[in-house]
Amino acid sequence: MRKLLENGVWRIYCGSATEILGYVFAATLIFLIIVCAIEKNHNAQLQKNGRIFLITVMAIYVFLLLYITLGNRENSQGEEFCLIPFYSYYEYMHGKTEKFRESMMNILLFYPLGLVARTVSDKKRIIFWGIFLSISIEVSQYIFHLGYAEVDDVIHNSLGVLIGAIVASMVKK
Length: 173
Description:
The protein is mostly helical. Helices cover about 75% and strands about 5% of the residues.
């Protein structure tokens, strides 16, 4: 098994698209099995403990998300923000192939947040908090010169939260 962190870069980010989707699928499946087991249980105390477990998982995930997006970055130089929506697609169409991968990774990065949070809260509130967290991360990246702040990141992160919330909603039904 490969190291998760290699030369300061999260290994999952460097994997192939198939490998990354495999990780996401496996994690989603495990999570949904746990949620179904909690939901199907008729013991009130076990349901309460299950809900506490899910909230704990969500808190750990948010901490990891902040570490990945802010704590694991070096100071950037030069132009540090882009306020043009969907500009990453323009760059992708003009030869910067990594931009498409970055967009998909931003969706996948926030997908678990929507998945976990939807099991403990309503969809509208989750999407609001997902957007708020994403904007906070991008503003922090700009203020502290930690990477490149983009409107596209907020769009893709929010889309990831929305997709996760939709998947969790389908399972709840």
